[in-house]
Amino acid sequence: MTSTIEPQVGAARKRKEDARLITGRTRWTDNIALPGMLHLAILRSPHASARIASIDVSAAKRRPGVVDVFSGADVRDIQGSLPCAWPVTEDIVHPVRPPLADGYVRHHGEAVAVVVARDRSAAIDALEDIEVEYEPLAPVLDLRAAYEDTGLVHPDKGTNKSYTWVFDSADAGTGSSVSDAAAEVTINRQYVQQRLIPAFMEPRSVVVDPGMGEYTIWSATQIPHILRVFYALLTGVPEHKIRVIAPDVGGGFGGKLQVTPEEMIAFLAAQRVGKPVKYTETRSDTMLSAHHGRDQLQDITLTATRDGTLTGIHVKLIANMGAYLGLVGPGVPILGAFMYNAIYKVPAYRFECVGVFTNTTITDAYRGAGRPEATYAIERAMDELAVELGMDPIELRRKNWIKAEEFPYTTVCGLVYDSGDYDAATDKALELFGYAELRAEQERRRASGDPVQLGLGVSTYTEMCGLAPSRILGALRYAAGGWESASVRVLPTGKVEVVTGTSPHGQGHVTAWSQIVADELGVAFEDVEVLHGDTRTSHKGLDTYGSRSLAVGGVALVEACRKVRDKARVIAAHMLECSPDDLEFTGGAFRVRGTPDAARTVADAAFAVFAAHDLPDGVEASLDADATFDPQTFSFPHGTHLCATEVDTETGHVRIRSYVAVDDVGRVVNPLIVEGQVHGGVAQGIAQALHEEAVYDAGGTLLTGSFVEYTIPSAADLPTIVSDRTETPATSNPLGVKGVGEAGAIAATPAVVNAIVDALRPYGVNDVPMPCTPERVWRAVKRGGVA
Amino acid sequence: MSSSHRVRVSVDVDGTRYVDDVEPRTLLVHHLREQLGKVGTVVGCDTSNCGSCTVLMGSADGAQHSVKSCSVLAVQADGASVTTVEGLAGPGGELHAVQQAFHELHALQCGFCTPGMIMSAVDLLRDNPDPSDAEVREGLSGNLCRCTGYQNIVRAVQSAAAALRAQAELPEEATV
Amino acid sequence: MIPVAFDYVRPSTVDEAVAALAADEDAKVLAGGQSLLPVLRLRLAAPTVLVDLGAVPGLTGVRLDGGDLVVGAMTTHAEVAADPLVREYAPLLAVAAGTVGDRQVRHRGTLGGSLAHADPAADLPAVAAALDAVYEVQGPSGRRTIPAADFAVDLFTTALAPDEVVVGVRVPAAAGWATHYEKFHRTAQAWAIVGVAVAVQRSNGTIGEARVALTNMGPVPHRARDVEAALAGAPATADAVAAACSSVAVGTDPVDDLSASADYRRELARVLTTRAVCRALGV
Questions:
Q1: Which residues from A are below 8 Å from B23, CB to CB?
Q2: Does the reported pTM lie above 0.90?
């Protein structure tokens, strides 16, 4: 009657999502065409800072095909201010951020006016007839000057400093004071986390259908649930009259974790004209207006004893917020605050961060969000310490990291790392890499004066994933919780519908969630449907970011499945005329202990529930269950990445010769998906090290406004990655999973830069600022030091 | 200004002939998406970098080559034949070897670059049925992907190349 | 984005094309469109009418004419790169055409279009200069020729009259030269920071004639005649090449921009020219 089913968790199942995506039968927001739909075009500020003296939209309004044109002044009373959900301090300076500029523009690309027209061409054409008179003001662009309040982004606030956030292990009682740390050796370094642009491939798009006061919104967003809450709070439309749908979403990397001006503008436009409207941005719009990432000045001091034992870490950050506060922007560096101690045992730690405004596009979450920055600084500084001490960089790390037998380990930040094995991951990586042979080749090249030098770089990282325990988020003044929700319903024929509060945009949740359900309920992988990204079907959720979906949403799903299974057990026992306690769930069915042929499946129970002719007393006719999981702690993936670079000292060209990634992401649900996440993350990490930087000119114009100037790497620019795993299950959740979405992006950047600097040590080089372009590398060689 | 006259364009897309009057400034990709409903082909940038809009295009009776449909005017496609990702599978829906390999080897995540990436790979393998990894990487350098790091894409193209070579070696009657 | 609206004509002869250009001073030639269409999409230009050369017969293909190789202006980069005659008689052009843009761009972009666009970062103008190419152009008063060295007069500005079109490129057929095009860029998609086009003759361990031209070392392609003179007759050794190429940047006028500074470009030109010549010579 029932056959034994192969376990699905752990299997390299090919993705269910692919069928549509490889045949072009996709559902991107920009594909949506509704009857009577109108199109928007947005006029953006050419200035970084200016007073808007006047706006005349009358000529634009007269153009054929134009239905409406409006600016901030026209919606002053209703447009509100875009939200910041993470005011990290009580006294944070949080300027008003209208979706449409009202009176002033404070960064290049800020939305100034909107055209609503019958087609996109007409809307774009009409932009040229909007007359805006700007009175340009001196922009505040340099982050250090902004920190010194040399010129003000928001003069009414009297300062560019948004907040100062401090963690001190002595104050927190989690360690001693850095000022008391033994400092036989001190390493102090400054690093620049350059500004990056997430550059998801699908430009953002939003469609708003105002209906009869019941709004349906399609948006290329990572956060349909959070967006709905904010739509309700900002517009006054009751939440139950708002439906948000995230259809196929083409990547995010944190870049679509935002409540955007464009989403609010489209809503206002739909409200004004009473018709469905669509706004799809161009890539140029994306570069200017979608939030940027990173952009921090880091000052890190390590103290250690001569034998290489770390005694203290002191970090001072200046974090560029851009012109306003984004949805979680102020919290991004704070997420990093808990990661500077990384995998190391260090008794004293102090972290100070000042969030500062400049006349630039806002910054916010980008893959890793605070943790790549932290990992970069500590892993770069560890290499400098190794050089200072004359130690091998890996041996220095090994001396300081937490040993496998020391878990659970409470860090100097007060976090409890539940599991890990840094020796195992590192040893595996070293073996795959051929470390000794590469060091020998490096020596040969150095000895022969080869113009192409070889460098080896290591990065041993951990990160905190599974955002997040709600009580911790609350303590950090985050406005929402960190739980996740799942619903499971077994249909009469034994097929299963799952509703998840996570909102995938490339991660493969439909596939992975199907694998989990298949194992939990003993149904076929193919018999599971996963519904997501529509607040009407998935009414409850906190969406996808921060490597949280599996570690939180996946666990909620397991809990919902187990509730269903408990219900089914009672029904199966009734059908088998035994006690539920006599049943065990094996091989996809409830079997009577000792009589395994007497069995009933979840599907059997589902049909019994559907018929409801003969249910045990007190059992409702339902095989559905909901679960909401709120983690008690974070999860802590870790790993060791090794990079070998060939550096052409005459041209500055860097070639990644080999790259090894060994990651421990806990239990693996689908190794194909995990490997894909590692590849993509590493690629983005390499891109930060070598290729990408958002650059403003002295007047505040974004120079990297397209893919011509913002050079994201193609296949020809990236190496083949050797990736492998160790598997130390998380003990903090029943799946044993940790999260993998950000690991590669966190680990790769310092590994690459460490390798470049290692290649150039004989030239007196101890740093190359990112991105390590050929010219910067060449300059570093030429100057024999910091470029 | 926008009073420019419309131009008749006749183009064969995925085996169907379409005749429309279009504004000369209409890009082929917008013609495909908005006039012809071929929304499988997408737009990812405005500078001809990302390659998401890649389709195959040729004279009606000649060989087709990969082009970026955002950098071709619809009027330039008059008389041409175009194949998009929607026309790649066989008449019974059987996937092209490249599509199949992308699925098998997890060569896509969000899937936005995928149509263009697949069409570029198809074009590359017609020119070079047995490329090295470096040739695959170089051959796909006109297509940007932000999710995969390209590694599984390279694997998939190599796998598809092997499958296509095996297909080509089959006797005539055995091929579909 | 969407271009500003324009009219469109598709002439069937060069004469018609020239007439269309002459009739409207804001008319613009559309060849392969791979440079023009992104410019139009970003609304950095707004021509009133595009004159599409795509339907004019006789502008594509490669033939030998006496001692010259003649490449039709509308021949695509992919066709140039793959053409057996070009590979035989102007291998530098074939190799360099294969580095332009990416596959898709090479399927649409044309030799004539690239040369007429006169982008200082484009690869082929320097190659044409190195090869002593001559451009055949046609205007209202008939055909004339313009030497490659005289064609580009400034950034994106050529000796072409507004009502003239490039119809072909004539390159002295030169079999047996060793050639190399060294393109240095930040990513595969990026324009050349510096490009070096090299063609050299070699006999018995000595360099014969040499041609060296640089991409993106000034507003127009830079023909490094001093280096050519220094190479001619020099021994075909790495040291001799390096000595001959050491002053290649003299007389150049590279820009400081987002992708590189001028002094770095000068240094790159020296290193890359040396390498390109050595590579061509196999030393």
A1: 121
A2: yes
